[in-house]
Amino acid sequence: MSTRTSILSKTRWQPLLDKPGLIDLSTSVLFAADDFFDFATEKRIVSPTPEHFANWAIRAPEKSRMVELEKLADAMNIIAPNLVGHIHDAATLLDRAQPEEAQSSGTASEPEASANTRSQSDFSRQTATSWDPIAPPSRRAPRARSVSLEPSELPEAWKETLRRMARGLSKGGVRAPSHEVIKRMREKLCQFSWAAQKHGLNIEITQQTVDIFDQELTERCRQGKNGLRWATIRASYEELHRFARYRSTTEDAIEYLATRLRMVEHFESGQKALKFFELARTGNTTLKILDLADDLLTASKHLNTPRRRHEGRNQAAILGIYSVAPLRNASAKLVFGKSLYWDHDLWVIDTMISKTRARRPERFVFPLEPEYGKFIDALLLGDQPQRRLPFERQKALSNQRPLFVHHGGRPKADSYISRKFKEVTDNSFTTLRTMLHTDLGVEHGEHGTLMAMIATHQNSAKTAEKYKMDSVGIAASLRCQLRARRRRERVQYGPLEEEGKKRN
């Protein structure tokens, strides 16, 4: 696959480099645009039509065609905004027609598109258009809904809008959000509809129904265990506003939601996030958690049964690995040979991070220094002698076993990692990312913040260093761990060294 530099160095891109926002486009988006330019050159297309865009898209595997069109729309929104509507129309053509029908006006379909990364095939499965956000869950919910309608009870027009979003289709210049956001939006709409129905109102977004929903939601939050959290209120308004814009609801309703959203954001800014309260309450830092991981690993050797020793190593590894590479809950489960690799004498995490707001997962590569990789080796070695370690590494990679298993080898539940981390440290993964930002930011200022952003797979258009991350990501992750080790050495050994100097 072409690199970002090789794409932008082509002659065709030179007149476009000064376009505002071009530098903010991801490499995969640039690749999609460059690939379409190749297609247009090959077919001698001067004025692209929806059919041209559809014929370009069908060269990709069926499950990823909508995703490729979405990438191309992102690029054309900067390069040639007048073509974005044609791309949306192309998505509609593909949605309605069979691939053979779309091919009738142009090129034949190629069976395969170039592979992107180890995790790309997994992502293609995630973005399949068969997901129905209205369909009932495969398992019955543990408790009945009390302040929310069932998705099937939403207005038909709303259900169709959610289904259109799930297919990845943009509308009116508003892009479809990720599946995770659609799920959250669906739940907010079910709550909103319940509130309107409770008060005998039609289920539609108006100033009156918004006020009723606000009243119900605020009262529920006040009675919750954390009291009134403006972040919770803001999340509800955010999804209602997003849905209203996508549906092209009346301008008055959209503006009213926007006004309420800005007001709630203002209230939220004056209220510290709950994760900062949790940090203050527990007093934890990444150094303390790393020290605890070392203590647990040492203590596990002295436990009286193989099962207890195995569980002790599991707990130590959770603290020792995720304190420097705080993955999100959905990406925390690591599997040898799939998301965890042995490369150049280091364990390397190589996985796709699914962020809540992102439709396309992002690749996250994070080498673990031996000080942190030792926790993985301890899990593989168990009670065996050290000479068995190379064999156990190869065996785990070949069998593609999960990192965390029961003593008998059965995989742990997906929730095990975050649940055990919370149980041992009294902090969640979200708090851990905040902790890493705080620790590195305080000690190293802006550079520390950059290191924390890389370690926690975050980027921001407001950060000037954003587009250096691809090239310095691995080095920064190693420096992040190195600095943590040096700080720990100062804390653990500094006073002893000073005492030794005095004696000498």
Structure, described:
58% of the residues lie in helices and 4% in strands. By secondary structure, it is mostly helical. The chain folds into 3 domains: 4-113; 151-271, no CATH class; 280-495, hpI Integrase, Chain A (Orthogonal Bundle), CATH 1.10.443. Strand 2 (346-353) and strand 3 form a beta hairpin. Helix 9 (179-198) crosses helix 10 and helix 11 (230-247) packs antiparallel against helix 12.
Could you provide a short overview of the structure?
By secondary structure, this protein is mainly α. The protein is built from 20 helices and three strands. Helices cover 58% and strands 4% of the residues.
Present the secondary structure layout.
Layout: H1 4-8, H2 27-43, H3 50-57, H4 65-79, H5 84-96, H6 99-103, H7 120-126, H8 156-166, H9 179-198, H10 207-222, H11 230-247, H12 251-269, H13 274-282, H14 286-300, H15 306-322, E1 340-343, E2 346-353, E3 362-368, H16 370-381, H17 389-399, H18 416-425, H19 429-455, H20 469-503
Antiparallel strand pairs: 1-2, 2-3
Helix pairs in contact: 2-4, 3-5, 4-5, 9-10, 9-11, 11-12, 13-19, 14-15, 15-16, 19-20
Main features:
504 residues, mainly alpha, hpI Integrase, Chain A, 3-stranded antiparallel beta sheet, 20 helices, globular, disordered C terminus
